[in-house]
Amino acid sequence: MPADQLLIGAHTSISGGVHQALLRGKQIGATTIQIFTANQKQWVGRPIPEEEIALWHETLASLNIKKVMSHDSYLINLGTPKEDNLAKSLNAFEAEIKRCLDLKLSFLNFHPGAATGDTEENCLNRIVESLLKMEPLFEQNSGLTLLIEATAGQGTSVGHRFKHLAHIIQGVKGKLPIGVCIDTCHIFCAGYDIRNQEAWEKTLTEFDQVVGLDYLQALHVNDSKHPLGSRKDRHESLGKGEIGAEGFRAMMQHPKLREIPKYLETPHGDTMWKDEIALLREFAG
């Protein structure tokens, strides 16, 4: 695939209507985008009006933007042992899936969860149980795939080891469309080196052995303010952090990563994303 057709974009705002995110993507040269379908800091998101959904589909049909991804609310914790919080998380996640289905999105990216006082194993099992409750929403093939986001390992969050991702996938595969979104900052801070071609090869080999590369369906592309294995999630502009430009050049040139959809979440987006998208295409050659 030519570099100008690779699916590279960023997280764009839906302010003014969900279709505005698509137009903002076009302005920065994106061929894919990520959005919040509702306020990511509130439990209850407003339903998207029918006329807004229609305008979304009309706008999308007019643009060269594909594989749009939603990021779920930061409040959702599908692995919490706290019953009230779990109930709110399940309701919010179900509502998010329904909004994604209305917009006919390709991916719903979600943070797996945090143990918050319970064991890691119980947390992972609870995430599986929570996801399986969503099975009725996928009885018809909608084209939507749930993507577990690999985490940096802050606090009691799970998802920072490849074995965590594999555990969740094994629990739901065949019942739900499931995959993984690797965040470059997150896995680096979790201890997986990706600073050059050799490091990427080692990390992807381990991912393939533990999870399976077929499940890797998207990448969040962010440099890191903190060093390898720090377990601190702080994004940095490409080439300005601890991963460095060579790591992203290797990513764009790797045959198993080149054509996977990529979404920037780097700082200073309004001023930097157009240049960073162009930089990634340049790295792709």
What does this structure look like?
The chain has 285 residues and is α/β, with parallel strands linked by helices. The chain has one domain: Alpha-Beta Barrel (TIM Barrel), CATH 3.20.20.150. It is built from 9 helices and 12 strands. The strands form 3 sheets. The chain has an 8-stranded parallel barrel with strand order 1-2-3-4-6-8-9-12, surrounded by 4 helices. It has a two-stranded antiparallel sheet with strand order 5-7. Strand 2, helix 2 and strand 3 form a beta-alpha-beta unit. Helix 4 runs parallel beside helix 5 and helix 8 packs across helix 9. The protein is globular. The model has no long low-confidence stretch (mean pLDDT 96).
Estimated structural class: alpha/beta
What fold name stands as the CATH topology?
TIM Barrel
Q: Give the total of beta strands.
A: 12
Largest sheet: 8 strands, parallel, barrel
Could you spell the SSE succession in H and E letters?
A: EHEHEHEEHEEHEHHEEEHEH
Helical segment count: 9
Tertiary shape: globular
Cofactor: Zn(2+)
Catalytic activity: Endonucleolytic cleavage to 5'-phosphooligonucleotide end-products
Organism: Simkania negevensis (strain ATCC VR-1471 / DSM 27360 / Z)
Keywords: DNA damage, DNA repair, Endonuclease, Hydrolase, Metal-binding, Nuclease, Zinc
How would you summarize what this structure contains?
This protein is of the alpha/beta class and 285 residues long.
What key phrases describe this protein's structure?
TIM Barrel; 8-stranded parallel beta barrel; two-stranded antiparallel sheet; 12 strands; globular; phosphoric diester hydrolase activity; DNA repair
